[in-house]
Design a protein that fits this description.
Length: 663
């Protein structure tokens, strides 16, 4: 979308300014970029003042031609500001999450792949935990960033290792609107939930600052029913409290001349939680403390026909687990460096060349007393070319170097062709889209170095995926807008890693044992209405995901042709958002079909249909202040279900938030 490419503000229309703007548009391809209805955050970004021109750099999504992209707009994120990313994705999308309970481990699997097949990037940097190769979405707070996007499907050429099933993109872009604005929020809810958050922004013509912080705790002492020989017995969940979870994320942007921008950002998190043992298991007092420190520094220069960016990062991830016996501790420090250069190819294309390097330093009890160090590097080339305004093409390539040698070469080809209308003018646009990509996942540190059982000879997993479909947009004046999309996909993942006990030793070890195929359909539609002071939106989505093992080694005893465990065949979501004067009302309904819990496809978790709602009222105050009261309810139908075997999910829960804002 054009807002992600260039934001322009004119103070005059003299010829020199026009020539400068025209050259910038060549780089961004603004004439061919597809536009979408702007949300409130994007509209506000257009109102600030600059000396002449403000430039937003070309993002990697410009080179993701033909791929599906889901975005959670600012209005949606505002309702979940005190929550974590798992909560908002579970309520607002038909994506598959494996949830161990509130405040417990939550992982995502895109298009039937595993949690290790989803790359998570923060401001363009991969923040996966190197030991596990995945992220706990219950530890990623919503308020730490300003935007959340999901790109399903293989995207290793753009995002590197792990983007086999897709990528989750978290960003915190600077806000250059002048003046001081912010908010303070307090939260309370069922089962001992309490917390709060604060956000403040300010900007001058040369500096923009944003600080966000949040705190949350919960007892999670809700009741559940258990079927026993004596009948149905009610119990109270034990050892499941979230003792505390806080997040602090300051970021600063400095303008350097008319074309440069220096940015610095931090994201500090700390969570102390009890680990519930599960129903029917002897109670334990297990606890885990997760701490992350993420620091980044970058510089971006955007010229008339080119831009270049350099950035560096330092991450530290600490996990301390204890369960009465000897503690298990893990500390991993990651150093990253990236450099990229983008140049315009005439009026119709752009080429980006770049390289990146990572260094991991791990001190993990499971690796013995020796600290482990590992280096990785990659080079990439991204090409976007639009032969005509209605035809957009991309060709991307990445080559990574791993300790065991070269990773699979990962090319990507994409196409978008407007069969009807033009995205920058017509009231109706019908677009054909298609892409083909290869992806890879590098072995994790645990898979390579765990003692006993680590396998330094593991090969990277390799995937090949295809997708194609149609996207339709229709507008009736300024009141009605309809956007629909249908996508069919298929991908095969080879050398899928499986942990198995060794013959005669019983020691578990990871091996490249199987080939898995995932295929399915994704359909979505969104209808928007604006009438006077009323704004309404309804979104519906459906995912059909068929994921099965198609081939395995002799040592892999799991059957061929059975739907993989914890991958639901059907998922659907329906949400509505209505704003009238100072009132808002949102509803969410998410359906998940049954899920097998073992490889044989015999035992399963029943399907669920979870209904939620949010009611809000805003009251204007003096001097640009306002108060917002939010009442939220989850699992309104009070459905009794298990989110994971032995992990009872919470019953109906209520929460309230009070937010004071100023500007």
């Amino acid at each position: 979308m054009i807002e992600n490419l260039i934001l322009l503000r004119f103070t005059s229309l003299h010829p020199a300014s026009l020539r400068r703007v025209a050259l910038l548009c060549l780089l961004a391809g603004a004439a061919q970029a597809q536009t979408a209805p702007p949300d409130s955050a994007r509209l506000s970004q257009r109102r600030h003042r600059l000396a002449e021109v403000q430039v937003r750099a070309v993002g990697p999504e410009r080179f993701a031609v033909g791929s599906t992209r889901l975005e959670l707009d600012s209005a949606t994120l505002a309702q979940y500001r005190g929550s974590n990313l798992a909560d908002v994705l579970q309520a607002r999308t038909p994506l598959a999450l494996k949830y161990y309970g509130p405040g417990q481990l939550a992982t995502i699997a895109l298009r039937g792949t595993s949690a290790q097949h989803t790359a998570v990037l923060w401001n363009g940097l991969n923040i996966m935990l190197p030991t596990l190769g995945q992220n706990d979405f219950s530890l990623l707070t919503v308020g730490a960033g300003t935007s959340v996007a999901i790109q399903p499907g293989p995207a290793a050429a753009l995002y590197g290792s792990g983007a086999v099933g897709g990528a989750v993109l978290l960003n915190s872009a600077p806000d250059w609107r002048p003046g001081l604005r912010g908010s303070v929020q307090a939260d309370a809810g069922s089962f001992g939930l309490a917390g709060g958050s604060v956000e403040a922004r300010t900007a001058t013509p040369s500096v923009a600052v944003r600080v966000a912080a949040s705190y949350r705790e919960a007892q999670n002492n809700y009741s559940y029913l258990q079927q026993e020989a004596r009948g149905t017995v009610r119990y109270t969940l034990q050892n499941a409290a979230l003792r505390h979870q806080w997040s602090l994320s300051p970021d600063v942007a400095w303008r350097v001349g008319q074309a440069g921008e220096l940015t610095a950002a931090a994201w500090l998190t700390d969570a102390d939680r009890e680990i519930q043992s599960g129903v029917g298991i002897a109670g334990t007092q297990a606890r885990e403390r997760d701490q992350s420190r993420r620091l980044t520094l970058g510089y971006r220069h955007v010229g008339a026909r080119q831009q270049w960016t350099v950035r560096g990062a330092w991450f530290e991830d600490i996990i301390n687990y204890r369960d009465g016996g000897a503690p298990s501790n893990s500390r991993v420090r990651t150093t990253q460096a990236q450099a990229e250069h983008t140049t315009a190819l005439g009026a119709r294309g752009s080429l980006r060349l770049g390289a990146e390097a990572q260094h991991f330093a791990a001190q993990v009890d499971g690796y013995g007393t020796v600290a482990i160090g590992e280096n990785r590097a990659a080079a990439f080339a991204l090409l976007r070319y639009d032969p005509r305004p209605a035809l957009r093409l991309s060709a991307n390539l990445r080559q990574a170097v791993l300790p065991a040698g070269l990773a699979p070469l990962t090319p990507t080809l994409g196409l978008e062709w407007d069969l009807l209308g033009a995205p920058d003018s017509a009231a109706q646009v019908l677009t054909l889209k298609a892409s083909a990509a290869r992806s890879y996942r590098a072995p994790t540190l645990n898979e390579r170095y765990w003692l006993p059982g680590g396998n330094p000879e593991l090969r990277p997993e390799s995937g090949v995926g295809y997708e194609g479909g149609l996207r339709h947009r229709r507008a009736w004046g300024r009141r009605w807008a309809l956007e629909s999309e249908l996508t069919a996909f298929r991908q095969d993942v080879d050398d899928w890693v499986q942990w198995l006990p060794g013959a005669g030793t019983g020691i578990w070890s990871p091996r490249n044992l199987r080939r898995v195929r995932s295929q399915g359909l994704e359909a979505s539609t969104a209808l928007r209405l604006r009438q006077g002071r009323y704004t309404g939106r309804m979104q519906a989505a459906y995912h059909y995901t068929d994921t099965r093992k198609t081939q395995g080694a002799a040592a892999d005893s799991d059957p061929v042709g059975v739907q993989l465990a914890y991958v639901p065949l059907h998922q659907a979501s329906l949400s509505t958002d209505q704003h009238w004067r100072a009132w808002l009302l949102s509803t969410t309904l998410v359906f998940t079909s049954y899920r097998y819990i073992n490889a044989s496809g015999v035992d399963f978790l029943p399907g669920t249909a979870l209904l939620g709602a949010t009611l809000g009222r805003s009251i204007a105050g003096p001097a640009g202040t306002s108060v917002l009261l939010l009442l939220q309810a989850t699992n309104l139908l009070n459905q009794r279900y298990f989110s994971y075997p032995g992990r009872p999910a919470p019953p109906r829960a209520l929460g309230a938030s009070l937010r004071l804002s100023w500007r």
